[in-house]
Amino acid sequence: MTSFTLAELAARVGGEVQGDGALRIEGVAPLEDAGPAQLSFFANRKYRKAFEASRAGAVIVEPDEDVPPGRTVLRAAPAYLAFAKISTAFHPPREPLPEVAPEAVVHPSAKVHPSAQVMPLATVGARAEVGPRTIVFPGVQLGEDVRIGADCILYANVAVRERCLVGDRVILQPGCVIGSDGFGFALDLQGEGRGPRHYKVPQAGIVVVEDDVEIGANSCVDRATLGVTRIGRGAKIDNLVQIAHNVEVGPLSIIASQAGIAGSAKLGMGVVVWGQAGVVGHITVGDRATIAAQAGVGGDIEAGGRVAGSPATPDVQWARNSAAFNRLTEMRRELRELRAAVARLEAEQEKKP
Amino acid sequence: MTSFTLAELAARVGGEVQGDGALRIEGVAPLEDAGPAQLSFFANRKYRKAFEASRAGAVIVEPDEDVPPGRTVLRAAPAYLAFAKISTAFHPPREPLPEVAPEAVVHPSAKVHPSAQVMPLATVGARAEVGPRTIVFPGVQLGEDVRIGADCILYANVAVRERCLVGDRVILQPGCVIGSDGFGFALDLQGEGRGPRHYKVPQAGIVVVEDDVEIGANSCVDRATLGVTRIGRGAKIDNLVQIAHNVEVGPLSIIASQAGIAGSAKLGMGVVVWGQAGVVGHITVGDRATIAAQAGVGGDIEAGGRVAGSPATPDVQWARNSAAFNRLTEMRRELRELRAAVARLEAEQEKKP
Amino acid sequence: MTSFTLAELAARVGGEVQGDGALRIEGVAPLEDAGPAQLSFFANRKYRKAFEASRAGAVIVEPDEDVPPGRTVLRAAPAYLAFAKISTAFHPPREPLPEVAPEAVVHPSAKVHPSAQVMPLATVGARAEVGPRTIVFPGVQLGEDVRIGADCILYANVAVRERCLVGDRVILQPGCVIGSDGFGFALDLQGEGRGPRHYKVPQAGIVVVEDDVEIGANSCVDRATLGVTRIGRGAKIDNLVQIAHNVEVGPLSIIASQAGIAGSAKLGMGVVVWGQAGVVGHITVGDRATIAAQAGVGGDIEAGGRVAGSPATPDVQWARNSAAFNRLTEMRRELRELRAAVARLEAEQEKKP
Asked: A32 with A105, same domain?
């Protein structure tokens, strides 16, 4: 069993032990489940009681956190990052077993790096490339001329269509689709004499997924009509997200589950889009902008902007207006009363010459 | 061809025939399509006309339903459940054909029960187990140490990642993903000297899918960061639903299509979440609470609570405020008129000493 | 390299060249990327500057478009359709390579047309049929008795469940699911003495996908409870869309990404549903109706109707009310001021006998 002293773990994250640094830690666990040989983690104040009741051998906390007396803690900043790094020590990323399974179907013209692993029932298309130490799970389908970089993990049933490019250290969760056709049709009223039809606009571009990106389960990234749909370096995309054709997602952006970005929208660096939000096409979202859950963004957002609601407005304004919305019935009653009062005043005034 | 007398079918569901119990029934069909040898079903009053016009040999109705004279009916309570059971008599669940297809890839250390069926091009990973009478369709990928119980059906292209546990009588629709990584990153401003990055928090937990659960096509259930993401006994989840890491879905809960439950949210027993609704992380939804379609839930809901809107409020209040929202333009006009009337009154008053 | 003169391309689309018709065109490209041997396209006025700065050899424009002097253009109506057709000349649809890969698994009773292509690791179930010139990519799973027409493309990891029917010239993007079970359960309070359960209503119907339909990546179309879920001729459905059991989508309808249509809803001909919108079950949407992004439709819509908002109302009304919503805080302030003014007036009046 992997184990470390608390002092060793503190050193890994530049943290400081308060209590017994020689304590042997055999794993990480949530506050409620952790035992005396486990390290836990406290950051969300909501879980203060669980922190106090925890049987954990030690707990990672922020440097200035108030802790119960006698509690052994590892102080580190930011505590959550320290937890992530220590958890990685106990749960290191999967290592590839360098081999192409005999039940995989690799086109003779494809190039799989000798250090890569291709599991059974995956396909690697003509001229496609799989880089060093990359792991390809069962049911992954890599189209013709696809290029996957080094140290990637492509989980089960991922599909990457022809010519799309995936960088290094990219993780694609199960069922994720890269390079599906964008949704583009031109209305053709004549339709070669057989009546109206939607004429398919060729989706001839590709998708580029840059280094250090992660894309969630069953999310879809459409290829460009012409040119490139781009997921920028280090961006992280959750499950069931839709990225339409010709979108650009800036580096280090975060897109939460079930959000959708429509065609040709450009998201800057470090943009955060929360769950189920939608962004219309052909707009620009500035660096570090934040879009609230379920927001509907219909126009440009400036750098650092924070919006909410549908249609989206600055989030502070939206919060005020939402609060007022919850008083609407009351406001209608007040309006009625005011109308009556004004009518009475007017009647009184008439009477007086 | 399977056939039953109407009286036999009534006996199966504890119902009562009004009309000819000896009528031979060869199948079930919608009101508009049913012929004289078919049994149909009437519950939604919206379809009253179709009921009256139907050529069905007999129709299942509630015990107290008003029926046209001469119409043969099977009265049962609840009628919909009776219909479901009778339809099952005509459409029994698929039986497994006990075999592992030669084109399936089953790891030597995996255990497939002799009564189970594994179809071509499915994979069963190292040490994984498939229980009695379970059916595994083509393209299903079961990771290492996965355990699938008895009498399950896993349809095409389902992926269950390593170590996840699935109970008995579970149905997973095509493309459903169990055990994808939760969406967890810690912001690392230094990033080993190469600038900011999102450091991946290991998602080291699992998913437990309890007995009698059904999960829809292309839905995703993320594994826990630590511990367990749990789908409780008898819960039913529709297509394209997102269940984030460490969520607990209580027994018998219902989650409709495209809804999303964010990380660490706890849903009680018998909770109902309608389509496209969203629930934020780290909150508690009480037993039997109901969340309306497209609602955005940002805080705890008490047992039996009913909410709607985004941000969600009690549904009665939301309905009133939504009605008022549709009068907002009118309210603005009234406000303008009142301002003018008050100004006039004030001017008049000035004039009078 | 494929190339055409500008005059040849104009002839293909019934357009007119203004400038050098002998210009050799080797491809199409966006305004910013196009070089002197490429044809580009200008329709969205938002990109006027890019049009003016473009190095494109020629640009497709509407017949009455104002163009900078010296710019070679191809005038055609509608310009977007002309672009689509010319782009197709450069990017013709993939041709099937008539063969069944040895790594595909085709049931002996299935019929694959000799001109069709079935790639490695696809399965074709018992009695299933694949029509002329249809292309079946790796990981596609076709269930028993499925019928796929002529000239279709089924991309990687598509699943079509038993008995579903797909017409001619249909395109299914990767991961799309046809024929998953509808979401139907009857509450069974007794549950054979073991307490309440959700009794599964057999989903015994099928899906019919008519000719010329396209369905996006990871979208789901549920089979009918009884009868048919129908996607009408020429309808186009984007990624991650949910179509529930017994829905009818009319011919030429358009459904954008992440929209959801609940059970038994009927959409007419040429209906347009924008992204993330939801339509409740058992309602009728008239021909050519338009449903705005994120709308929540709770009742019938008449032919040609245009709705927005949740709950949806006519879009003009919704736009006005949304504008008013953004003044709600201001309206509350005005109400407060009016109340104070009226109180003052009332007090004054008291004083005067």
From this structure: no
